[in-house]
Amino acid sequence: MDVTSVTTHVGAWARVRPWIGLIARVVLAGVFLFAGGTKVGDLAASGRAVHAYELMPYGLATAVGAALPFIEIAIGLLLLLGLATRLAGVLSAVLLSVFIAGIASVWARGLSIDCGCFGSGGELAPGQSPQYGSEIARDVVLLALAVFLVAYPRTPLSVDAYVLGDVVLEDDHEQQGEEQASQPGGTRATGA
Amino acid sequence: MSSRVKSKQANQVVRAQLAREERKRRLRMITLIAGALIVIAGFIGWGIASAQRSTKAQTPTGASSDGVGLIVGGNGGKAKVELYVDFMCPHCKTFEESAAGTLDEMMSSGRAEVIMHPVAYLDDASTTDFSTRASAAAACASDGGKLNEFSKALFAQQPAEGGPGLSDAELITIGRGVGLGDDFAQCVSDKKYVTWVSKVTNAASERGVRGTPTVYVDGKAVEATVQALTAAVNAAQ
């Protein structure tokens, strides 16, 4: 009895997991595409926004600010297509961690800037006050989604699934090769 | 177990092994391609920005010696007052209006030379990049010898944030109102100094000007109030 209930539980998680992954992919893709899209039209402004963090010399800040929107868009496209999902997840997690660290450091140093997360940033528009807390909270949620994709990169409706021939939405024993080895000729526990 | 069954099972194991290796190979390839894509994307951005930065900007005739400011007046004055302003910024308007008389007096008495750095930090605050266009128009007004008058008139008609700002035609009308002519109108319409404004803005960022208005007296940052400005200029006499 115990064994059965545990199996059912695992089965449910395995069925839901790919869909959570798909949602994570689409949400992250949307955020990155939007973030990159709002910055790509004014790369000089993006560089100034990076410089406003006062974390690197001006020349480096302009280079980072110019490259960042394109990298964000590229990651967004990978996530949207579900191409190299684990890599995209790792890069998302790295970027988001850097953003969180940057905002936290600005906050700790008492600087008053627009994070430049979406759009040009740098100077706060008149009458605006910094929103560091909510910006960090948002990035932490996105970071959690990215980490989920690193842990479970196999999602439905993805180029990965198509190219690798994975059957994402089947039960556990189809998930990974290593698991298959332990169940030769495995019987299907539940019907699809 | 017969040998036949055994070899069938062995075949299955081999096939599964081959399939796993093929899958790994494909995964490696996908990851490699995706990684290259990201790196290339980064370099594209860097390349575009470098190309944009090296675009030659026309420098206004009345530019300050550093090339990224406009001499408002008081040439050769004892103190050097530098103002970083954005025509979209309400605090710049209040500062400019409260300090106008003081600045005019400092320039006419030779106590200070005043240089304006018209930046475009707030392009996002209008739907038409009003900050850039207004600052470029200020450079046109400088060419026409009426920067001080134009700047005052422009601040007086500062548009609301979040809207379309003022059109080029409206900027020209304001210019004509202070006595600027067809050359000014042509300069505004041609967007002659738009690239230069971008240079001014980048130079401001490089100097560490994070907001507007920012005031420097003889290279030192001073609080943007008439009192602080007056005190710093007096100290420089």
Automatic annotation (TrEMBL), chain A:
UniProt subcellular location: Membrane
Keyword Cell inner membrane assigned: no
Organism of this sequence: Luedemannella helvata
Keyword list, A-Z: Membrane, Transmembrane, Transmembrane helix
Domain of life (superkingdom): Bacteria
Domain (Methylamine utilisation protein MauE) ranges: 18-151
Recorded topology in the membrane: Multi-pass membrane protein
Protein name per Swiss-Prot or TrEMBL: DoxX family membrane protein
Residue ranges of the TM segments: 19-38, 58-80, 87-108
UniProtKB/TrEMBL annotation, chain B:
Keywords tagged on the record: Disulfide bond, Membrane, Oxidoreductase, Redox-active center, Signal, Transmembrane, Transmembrane helix
Residue ranges constituting the Thioredoxin-like fold domain according to the UniProt record: 69-234
Record-given protein name: Thioredoxin domain-containing protein
Pfam families: Thioredoxin_4 (PF13462)
Transmembrane segments: 29-49
Keyword Transmembrane helix: yes
Family affiliation: Belongs to the thioredoxin family. DsbA subfamily.
